Automatic annotation (TrEMBL):
Belongs to the YPP1 family. It comes from Apodospora peruviana. This is Filamentation protein. Residues 735-842, 866-897 are annotated as: Disordered. It comes from the Eukaryota. Residues 788-812 have a biased composition (Basic and acidic residues). Residues 768-786, 883-893 have a biased composition (Low complexity). TPR repeats lie at residues 993-1026. InterPro entries: Endocytosis_PI4K-reg_protein, TPR-like_helical_dom_sf, TPR_rpt. Keywords: TPR repeat. Involved in endocytosis.
Length: 1223
């Protein structure tokens, strides 16, 4: 007898059994339901049919299912179709049961492979089938299972009929109504089974569509299937993510995650809008934050499944899926770590967290692959990006060794190895390593780069086109393959990058080698290979790195004509095709051209075209159109600001500029341009104007680097007196206004940096030195060989030593030979100028028609004939010391033939964005700040504001001392004051030497040569090869030898300022030095140099000395025996030295020692990479030769000095490009 309560109970049990896949209990439960609820025949028949289908389907393996479809279902089950159809028609009271029956009928047709009938019987979604049904939330779990089953079967039938879009539409339309299915917990067996089957089919179908039609990635719902898949698995919180296979015949679960990762990676790599459809709720602020967060989540899940399900391979096995995953990770990392993504876009940890996470991925991949060259190559790249240089180059060494062995193995056996990098990838990796070594390393790195360049050259000659190997003297290979096969193997731009890397290695080695002959050869090789990298055979697009390196090499060799033409051509070329912003960041082309603008400015200043040089400095900033783009709206802390700064701050506020996304190398380039601008301003308008404008350096530095020290300013009480140019608008400033009405309305006189050409006609020549005529009315300073100086010693009160006079107005490179004033000779090449007459002899003037062609200068139309245009006979007298260097200048000026600079771009982000440790960045910025303070000190010194110059030196010294304290407190022992760290240009010892050198020149400006000598000695104690310190000390030593500089008296004089110790403001003199050099030697001559009360004068003392010492033959005012060493006569003279308090000059032995030491220092310096083209050193060396009577060698050195000075800019060439050849 029917019982309603029991019927409800058994119906519930029947539903549970179906959901739990307890099909064995179904027949008994069906019998009981029929007994207590005979009107539920549709339900019972459906349950029986589902049970029979399940049992029949699982008896046959999936592989046999297609060929034995009729055997899957018994004939009795097939005969149930009419009964099921009848029950469906009869059912009117229970819509859920009718819906379940229709799905069952469709499932039965699908099993029988009657797909058209399946589409007829399968219902749509329950809400579409029964739109009037109100309580959708109360649907039973089995109804939800049937809904999933129905959608899956319908989409599967459509896909089999090649209706993929309709199938995807069926899946997507079911997602809203089935949203509750993914959150049903705990989900039972059948719900999980059909849900995973539904999502797997949906994801794989969507992935297939996306791979074939990339436009679908722009659809906001392109990730709907994958996000639903992720939401489905997110319910099992705390449980390990399931891998393996979800059901028989299915794809692995990690394959779905792989497709998810592929799709979201494509969105990232194509820089498409972030898809918002079905996106999870996120706290991230921006779309890029959300994309990065989702990408990281999917990558972590897929990586975990892949690594856990992959075992370590045998030697002959490949792990293609692991290497494909690693390649995709690195492509994503390249974008995320590039300049197109900002630090805040990457979420917590920024680039550091990103790169270290990628390293973990790579090391995990190394445990699942066998000697994978790709993994090692990527390890090198990422270690380089996090500034772990030692690990990076160790990875590269392992990579190169494996590649070499693998290539040799393939060549020997003839069996290709899929996991081995191809030739193009290998060449690019070696080029990247060479570039990194040249950019971030020192001498050891340069040597390693040179060795790699030799290997790379051999590989390129072997793999490159045959015609490129036959030209330029390349030896052909013994066995050449067909040209077509070789050309198709390596892309042309990779060959260009390879030649560029070879050229960079040679250029870097030429800078650090001690062998002058090897330096010359390396420079020639560098130019040769860099020109080859820009050859038209590699395409019409030139790499900006190659243009910069080649232009800098030409400039260093004083080949200004071709260098200027090359750089100008590169700057004026058409912009390359857009599309690199994602990798290189916004305004990438303008940013890469900043060093080229700076190099052009220096080269123009070398030709004394100061107006154009100043405009080139402005051009580096004007290419950004608006200073707000470059500097943003942040205010600049500082006292003085030019007009544009005030205008920008008044109009706009807040916001970051391009400088906030630059690395420290790029920021230093901007700061160096500012220093060059001020140097031009100083040279043209005087040091006082430069001093007044130098406060912009202290304003610019905090904007670029932040506040690394206390507020950057000098004491207001010590500020220099204001001039009419102090508060005016400096159009020469990179921030200068370009509106003429503002730039002229309040200027009493116009600056050369903003004025017209008429201003240039009145520019005075460069500051004169002791080697030029001292009269300021001389229009053409002359170069003269110093003659005998005995007649110049008229008394201590009436003369200064050469070292004092030479250094009182300028620092390092401004000290000696000056270029002639060519500002008025550009358009009047035929104008005659009289030669200068000194002591009855005609000396060189730049406009003498009788001079060799080497010293003539053409007009603008005819081109500038620089130092490189000398004829072979012109320099025949300079072959003893400068034959190697001069041989380059005897060649004709090279031209741009054979170069392709029609379009300039960066081929690829060859070097990754290197993220240094914050401590390293802080140290590097402090080093830069030291340079800023020393530059400012030089401005103050040359303006005669010695107290302010001293304070600037003290500021620099404080920073250096803080760096020394950090090294002393380092417990790890990795820091050193002598070694230059990776990514640094100077060691701490060299910084200390810089400070002492600047103080030495400040003492020379104060006319205190012995204090200066002590400072130079201290500088060389810290850094023995410091060029400026060697030159400064050598000048003083030569003055001591020539007795232009006499020793201080043994008894201190009475001329004291502020008491006995007038130099108490100087804190850093050694105790010993302070006792010996505490008086100014040039101020005591007003008193006698012998004890008071004695009537002996200097003349009588000299007479007595002459009476006691036999007269020695003299040459140029000095004993001939000086040329051969110490003679017995001089030995006797040494025994008769007067007491110290009676001495009026140094003993000859001491003077000879001073001269020989100066010669030794200068000779060693001119052989170094820092001194081979240092004109100050060569000029001082010429004087050392002259003092020793070697006049021929002195002339040789002077001619080389003339050649160097002829092509010297307002600053050294090393200030461009952060001190190297690599951008």
């Amino acid at each position: 007898m029917p019982d309603a309560a029991k019927a409800a109970h058994y119906i519930q049990q029947l539903g549970d059994a179906r959901c739990e896949e307890n099909w064995d209990a179904v027949p008994e439960l069906v019998r009981k339901v029929r007994k207590h609820a005979p009107d539920r025949s549709c339900l019972t028949l459906t349950a029986e049919t589902e049970r029979d289908i399940t049992k029949a389907t699982f008896k046959v393996p999936p592989a046999d299912r297609p060929s034995t479809a009729t055997s899957l279902v018994d004939v009795e089950i097939a005969r149930q179709l009419p009964k099921l159809a009848t029950e469906i028609d009869k059912e009117e009271h229970f819509p859920e049961e009718r819906f379940q029956a229709k799905v069952c009928a469709g499932w039965l047709h699908w099993v029988l492979r009657e797909y058209s009938q399946t589409l007829i019987f399968l219902p749509k979604n329950f809400d579409q089938e029964y739109p009037l049904y109100e309580n959708l939330d109360t649907l039973s779990e089995w109804t939800k299972v049937c809904a999933l089953k129905s959608t899956y079967l319908r989409a599967n039938c459509l896909a089999r009929d090649e209706q993929r879009e309709a199938a995807l539409e069926a899946f997507s339309s079911a997602l809203p109504s089935l949203s509750g299915v993914w959150t049903t917990r705990p989900a039972r067996q059948q719900l999980r089974y059909w849900a995973e089957l539904f999502l797997t089919e949906y994801c794989m179908l969507a992935s297939q569509a996306i791979r074939e039609n990339e436009q679908l990635l722009s659809d906001p719902n392109c990730l709907a299937s994958f996000r639903t898949w992720s939401k489905y698995w997110a319910g099992d919180k705390g449980a390990p993510l399931a891998g393996g296979y979800g059901f028989r015949g299915s794809v692995p679960r990690r394959q779905v995650w792989s497709e998810y990762y592929f799709t979201i990676s494509e969105i990232l790599q194509r820089d498409l809008p972030f898809p918002t459809g079905h996106s999870p709720i996120s706290t991230e602020s921006s779309a890029r934050n959300q994309l990065r967060s989702e990408l990281k989540k999917v990558e972590t899940i897929y990586q975990g499944l892949l690594y856990s399900e992959t075992r370590f391979p045998k030697a002959d096995e490949q792990r293609a899926e692991v290497e494909e995953f690693v390649a995709r990770v690195m492509r994503n990392w390249t974008i995320l770590n590039g300049r197109g993504w900002k630090e805040q876009d990457l979420g917590a940890g920024g680039r550091d967290s990103l790169s270290h996470g990628t390293l973990d991925t790579l090391y995990g991949a190394a445990t699942k692959t066998y000697h994978s060259t790709a993994v090692l190559r990527h390890l090198f790249t990422v270690h380089l990006a996090v500034a772990e240089f030692d690990l990076a180059f160790m990875s590269f060494d392992s990579y190169l060794e494996l590649v070499k062995k693998g290539k040799a193995r393939v060549e020997k056996t003839g069996h290709p190895e899929p996991a081995l990098d191809d030739d193009a990838t290998m060449l690019e990796a070696i080029s990247t390593c060479i570039t990194a070594l040249c950019r971030y390393g020192g001498r050891e790195a340069a040597e390693k780069a040179l060795n790699l360049a030799s290997e790379l050259q051999q590989l390129v000659e072997k793999l490159g086109p045959a015609h490129s190997r036959l030209e330029d003297g390349f030896k052909p290979l013994k066995e050449d393959r067909p040209l077509s096969a070789m050309q198709n193997k390596v892309p042309l731009h990779i060959l260009a990058l390879s030649w560029q890397a070879v050229g960079l290695a040679h250029a870097q080695w030429a800078r650090v080698t001690y062998d002058s002959e090897a330096r010359t050869q390396s420079q020639d090789e560098a130019i040769r290979y860099l020109r080859k990298s820009l050859s038209p055979e590699f395409g019409n697009v030139a790499d900006v790195r190659g243009v910069f390196a080649l232009g800098l090499l030409y400039a260093e060799q004083r080949k200004l004509t071709v260098a200027i033409e090359l750089v100008k051509t590169a700057l004026l070329t058409d912009k390359a095709a857009a599309g690199q912003e994602l990798y290189n960041g916004p305004y990438w082309r303008e940013r890469s051209l900043i060093p080229l603008w700076h190099l052009l400015a220096l080269m123009l200043s070398a030709r004394q075209e100061y107006l154009m040089a100043a405009r080139a400095c402005e051009g580096a900033i004007e290419q950004f159109k608006d200073p707000y783009v470059l500097f943003g709206g942040k205010s600049l802390n500082g006292g003085y600001r030019s007009d544009h700064l005030n205008e920008v701050e008044a109009e706009k506020s807040g916001g970051d500029g391009i400088v906030d996304e630059m690395d420290d190398y790029e920021r230093e380039s901007i700061l160096e341009i500012k220093m060059t601008q001020l140097s031009i301003l100083e040279l043209v308008e005087g040091p006082t104007v430069a001093v007044n404008a130098s406060s912009e350096l202290l304003t610019l530095f905090p904007r670029l680097f932040g506040d690394v020290e206390d507020k950057l300013e000098l004491n207001a009480q010590l500020e220099p007196p204001k001039t009419t140019a102090t508060l005016r608008s400096l159009r020469g400033s990179m921030f200068g206004s370009h509106r003429s009405e503002k730039s002229t309305s309040h200027q009493p006189r116009q600056s050369v940096l903003g004025g017209g050409n008429e201003r240039m006609s009145t520019i005075a020549s460069r500051p004169q030195t002791t080697q030029t005529v001292q009269s300021t009315t001389t229009t053409a300073p002359t170069i003269q060989v110093t003659n005998e100086h005995g007649d110049l010693r008229s008394g201590r009160t009436s003369r200064k030593s050469d070292s004092i006079r030479r250094r009182s107005e300028s620092n390092g490179r401004r000290a000696s030979l000056r270029k002639r004033d060519r500002s008025g000779s550009r358009g009047t090449g035929s104008q005659q100028y009289p030669p200068s007459i000194v002591d009855g002899e005609k000396y060189f003037t730049p406009f003498d028609d009788n001079l060799p062609q080497y010293f003539t200068f053409g007009s603008k139309t005819g081109g500038y004939e620089g130092s490189a245009a000398a004829s072979p006979g012109t320099l025949k007298h300079s072959q003893s010391y400068t034959s190697n260097a001069s041989s380059r200048s005897r060649n004709n000026n090279p031209d741009l033939s054979g170069l392709s600079v029609n379009e300039v771009e960066s081929f690829a982000a060859l070097l990754p964005f290197v993220q240094f440790h914050p401590n390293h960045n802080k140290k590097r910025r402090r080093v830069t700040l030291v340079k800023v303070w020393l530059v400012i000190a030089g401005f103050y010194r040359r303006a005669g504001l010695f107290d302010d110059a001293q304070k600037a030196c003290l500021e620099a010294q404080k920073i250096v001392q803080a760096l020394e304290v950090e090294v002393a407190n380092d417990s790890s022992g990795t820091l050193s004051v002598r070694q230059t760290p990776w990514g640094q240009n100077k060691s701490i010892e060299e910084l200390v030497a810089d400070v002492w050198t600047e103080k030495g020149y400040l003492y020379l400006a104060r006319e205190r040569p012995y204090h200066a000598r002590s400072s130079f000695e201290s500088a060389l104690t810290h850094f023995p090869d410091h060029p400026a310190a060697i030159v400064g000390l050598s000048d003083i030593l030569l003055d001591i030898y020539s007795e232009k500089l006499l020793p201080p008296p043994a008894v201190p004089g009475l001329d004291m300022v502020n008491g006995y110790n007038d130099d108490t403001y100087e804190p850093a003199l050694d105790a010993k030095a302070s006792l010996v050099f505490q008086n100014r030697p040039e101020k005591f001559p007003v008193l006698p140099s012998v004890p008071l009360g004695l009537a002996n004068t200097a003349a009588s003392a000299a007479k007595k000395k002459a009476d006691k010492v036999p007269e020695v033959p003299r040459l140029n005012g000095r004993p001939v025996s000086q040329q051969q060493g110490i003679s017995p006569v001089l030995g006797a003279a040494a025994q008769l030295l007067p007491p110290a308090y009676k001495a009026t000059s140094l003993p000859l032995v001491d003077r000879l020692a001073a001269r020989d030491r100066a010669y030794g220092l200068l000779s060693g310096l001119t052989k170094l990479g820092s001194g081979w083209n240092y004109s100050e050193a060569w000029f001082a060396l010429a004087r050392a030769y002259e003092e020793s009577g070697q006049l021929d060698k002195a002339k040789d050195a002077l001619w080389w000095c003339v050649e160097l000075e002829d092509g010297m800019g307002v600053r050294e060439w090393r200030c461009v490009g952060a001190g190297g050849y690599v951008l």
